[in-house]
Amino acid sequence: MASIFKRCPEPLVLLFLVTLAIQLSCSVATATYSNHSSVGGMLPVHCLPDQTSALLHLKRSFTVTNESACTLDSWRAGTDCCHWEGVQCRDANGRVTSLDLGDYGLQSPALDHAVFWLTSLRHLNLAWNDFNHSQLPASGFERLAELRHLNLSTSSFDGQIPDGIRSLTNLVSLDLSSTFNVEDDHPDSSTGYGYAGYGIWVDHPASFLVEPNIASLVANLTNLRELNLDSANLSGNGVEWCTAFANSTTPQLKVLSLRYCNLYGPVCGSLSSIPSL
Ligand SMILES: *[C@@H]1O[C@H](CO)[C@@H](O)[C@H](O)[C@H]1NC(C)=O
Ligand SMILES: *[C@@H]1O[C@H](CO)[C@@H](O)[C@H](O)[C@H]1NC(C)=O
Ligand SMILES: *[C@@H]1O[C@H](CO)[C@@H](O)[C@H](O)[C@H]1NC(C)=O
Ligand SMILES: *[C@@H]1O[C@H](CO)[C@@H](O)[C@H](O)[C@H]1NC(C)=O
Ligand SMILES: *[C@@H]1O[C@H](CO)[C@@H](O)[C@H](O)[C@H]1NC(C)=O
Ligand SMILES: *[C@@H]1O[C@H](CO)[C@@H](O)[C@H](O)[C@H]1NC(C)=O
Ligand SMILES: *[C@@H]1O[C@H](CO)[C@@H](O)[C@H](O)[C@H]1NC(C)=O
């Protein structure tokens, strides 16, 4: 897996970006010196202590190995977390609005609850990290009520999709898929799980994410435009899976991906009642 991880920003590029950011923010600050409160998001944002603390907790939950693509070196106490790699604070009050650790190749025994202290998050991407087949925390996601984009793709989470995700009514995209190299005839023999291709399960003890009630997952996600559940086990839905979508109030759904989901039964005509699909 390591070879497909994206490269981390080079220190030189970072230095350049930081320098640029400092120059930009200095000129903005000078120009608007006379009235700080009027410039809103333009002023340099300083991370609030609770946000810094949440991120440092999170960092400690990752086991950085020499195979990690990125080691979160910029995440250091005493520095402004709004400038850390993968972190953005898009509003003026120093709260983290985006955490993008997609493709970082980090390892962790489980998702740390500290992520739920980042209650202003609009964008959370933990895709392509390794959470060691742990369960997603049963509670906590409901606190991330501002979330627009949640991406937990191919992060080795197993078990039930937590109820909290059902309440994230602002979600525009939800990616809980897992990707495997289905052309590989020999799925990861060290863990003994994976697809041998063509939807055939290879024996594995803990399975992947399981969602036996699609109807309740999407019931309140009225803003959803993209839903990817590839490789989640949806077999518990029976032939009802299709009407569950058709009945749901996801009128803006444009992209629906359900590969290798253990679904059976016909594709119902009423799917076409979702006009944007
Ligand atoms: C700063 O701007 C705000 C909003 O535009 C305004 O209400 C306030 O009176 C201004 N303060 C000063 C000191 O000019
Ligand atoms: C990572 O460390 C292990 C042992 O510490 C070593 O055998 C391996 O070659 C290292 N891998 C890389 C990519 O440096
Ligand atoms: C989730 O992240 C992965 C890896 O970065 C990316 O390939 C995928 O497109 C993302 N999903 C969405 C819905 O943006
Ligand atoms: C991953 O989980 C297994 C089984 O629960 C455990 O034995 C192992 O120590 C965990 N590995 C890490 C890196 O947390
Ligand atoms: C959807 O929202 C309604 C109203 O807030 C609530 O009563 C219901 O339990 C929610 N449904 C699910 C599946 O979470
Ligand atoms: C998929 O989920 C169903 C329950 O919803 C369970 O009975 C079945 O064993 C699961 N399949 C796999 C391969 O884990
Ligand atoms: C979809 O709606 C129809 C008509 O209201 C109902 O009969 C059916 O049980 C619903 N299906 C699901 C899966 O909720």
Automatic annotation (TrEMBL):
| Residues in the signal sequence | 1-29
**The organism's place on the tree of life at top rank:** Eukaryota
Give its localization. Membrane
Primary place of residence?
membrane
Which Gene3D superfamilies is this protein grouped with? Ribonuclease Inhibitor
Membrane-related topology note: Single-pass type I membrane protein
Domain Leucine-rich repeat-containing N-terminal plant-type stretches: 49-89
Q: Which UniProt keywords apply?
A: Glycoprotein, Leucine-rich repeat, Membrane, Repeat, Signal, Transmembrane, Transmembrane helix
* Spans traversing the lipid bilayer: none
Q: Which InterPro entries match?
A: Leu-rich_rpt (IPR001611), LRR_dom_sf (IPR032675), LRR_N_plant-typ (IPR013210), RLP23-like (IPR046956)
**UniProt GO cellular component terms:** membrane
Q: Which residues form a coiled coil?
A: none
Q: Indicate whether Glycoprotein appears among the record's keywords.
A: yes
- Full protein name: Leucine-rich repeat-containing N-terminal plant-type domain-containing protein
**Species per Swiss-Prot/TrEMBL record:** Lolium multiflorum
